[in-house]
UniProtKB/TrEMBL annotation:
This is Beta-ketoacyl-ACP synthase. Residues 7-413 form the Ketosynthase family 3 (KS3) domain. Pfam families: ketoacyl-synt, Ketoacyl-synt_C. One of its GO terms (molecular function) is 3-oxoacyl-[acyl-carrier-protein] synthase activity. Coiled coil: none annotated.
Length: 416
């Protein structure tokens, strides 16, 4: 079985998920279809005087005092374990392929910076950098490559793990790298992962200063409102999504259950602005068209779009513009998982790929909740508020990141 370009088909044989809605695929998906929100008040750190006091946190046992990399590693491990277990591939601790990780950018968090400043008796960056010399504990704690090394050792993946960060497209980039490795014949199986757990004071304040976050703190469940007239920013969230990808023929030969295919991946860069898309939309349009071309599909073949749909005025307007440019008047239904789980940043592309596969499996479109007042400028069918039964064979999953880092995936049903 080969695709239209003669490459091996890439199957998904296992999926794992951790979200603000729950631990594991089953709980996250059932609550997503039910239109439930995982957004809540932040209790991890004081939020006095902050404009935004809500997030879609994943709260772990003994979470107090954990750094973001430690939390990322824990939830990433949960998602990988679930995916590998479902795929029933290899023996425990000996996965027969590489690991591709989508990770947040490296960032030393405030408590550590404050400690370095106190020790140096000087708050300047130069003094803190000097004080950090020889501090291997600081280096190892905030080195996300270290997360990859430890996860690779835990699950016995082959070769050096590859860690990437492409803003909000990170999880989709990790999947694209895994798909291309299989297509090139470098491996018959791999794990692709996106994970993020960076709800911490500095990150929250930085996004707030960019005017990117919702400040609808009075009712957290109503805060994330993608494509709706009164949307006013995204809700920062956490989570992890993992996929076991395999050469389709190899997976069938070993009797694996096929959850679907990653049949196409397209990317297109846009260096117009650090947070905004170029008004001409060429990168967003290009990424979607590249994904369709890579899958050998026409726009009319797409049954549903799992939208990037962050809930910022700019993003949703541009996604609507791009959808119309690609699909014309016959755009398929679209919905945003972020209306319920928030924007999981580095994890978003992977989690939304997982939910796209479940959409195909169950033939049911998850809703966009909080769609109370339609925006006349958004001319798409956004599957408002309630899940919908549908015939779904191909899903386009969009990931449009800050800095113009755009990746789109096509997820498809198993060939009949």
């Amino acid at each position: 079985m080969r695709d239209h370009l003669g490459r091996p088909l890439v199957a998904v044989t296992g999926i794992g998920a951790v979200t603000s809605l729950g631990f594991g695929v089953a709980e996250s998906w059932s609550r997503l279809l039910a239109g439930q929100s995982g957004i809540r008040r932040i209790t991890r750190f004081p939020t006095d005087h902050l404009k935004t006091t809500i997030a879609g946190t994943v709260d772990l046992p003994d979470d107090e005092g954990l750094t973001s990399p430690v939390r990322v590693e824990r939830i990433a491990g949960m998602a990988i374990e679930e995916a590998v277990s479902e795929a029933t591939i290899g023996s425990k601790g000996a996965f027969p392929g590489p690991l591709f990780l989508g990770m947040p950018p490296v960032e030393v968090e405030w408590p550590t910076r404050f400690d370095l400043a106190r020790r140096a008796r000087d708050p300047s960056y130069a003094a803190m950098t000097k004080q950090a010399e020889g501090r291997h504990d600081v280096y190892e704690t905030f080195l996300y490559g270290g997360v990859g090394e430890r996860l690779a050792a835990r699950f016995g993946t082959r070769g050096a793990p590859i860690s990437v960060t492409t803003a909000c497209a990170t999880g989709a980039t990790a999947i694209q790298l895994g798909v291309e490795a299989i297509q090139r014949g470098e491996c018959d199986a791999c794990v692709a992962l996106g994970a993020d757990s960076t709800v911490q004071p500095e990150a929250l304040i930085r996004f707030s200063l960019l005017s990117a976050l919702s400040t609808r703190n009075d009712d957290p469940a109503k805060a994330s409102r993608p494509f709706e007239k009164n949307r006013a920013g995204f809700v920062m969230s956490e989570g992890a999504g993992a996929l076991v990808l395999e050469n389709y023929e190899a997976a069938k030969a070993r009797g694996a259950t096929i959850l679907g295919l990653v049949s196409g991946a397209g990317e297109r860069a846009d260096n117009f602005h650090r947070t905004r898309s170029n008004p001409d939309g060429r990168a967003i349009v290009g990424a979607m068209r590249n994904a369709l071309a890579d899958a050998g599909l026409e726009p009319g073949d797409i049954s549903y779009v799992n939208g990037h749909g962050t809930g910022t005025p700019e993003n949703d307007k541009m996604e609507n513009f791009g959808m119309r440019a690609v699909f014309g008047e016959n755009a398929p239904p679209i919905s945003s998982n972020k209306s319920m789980i928030g924007h999981t940043l580095s994890a978003a592309g992977a989690l939304e790929a997982v939910f796209s596969l479940l959409t195909i499996r169950d033939q049911r479109l998850p809703p966009t909740i909080n769609h109370d007042e339609p925006d006349p400028g958004i001319t798409l069918d956004v599957v408002p508020n309630v899940a919908r039964d549908a015939t779904v064979r191909h899903v386009l999953s969009n990931s449009f990141g800050f800095g113009g880092q755009n990746v789109c995936l096509v997820l498809s049903a198993e060939p009949t």
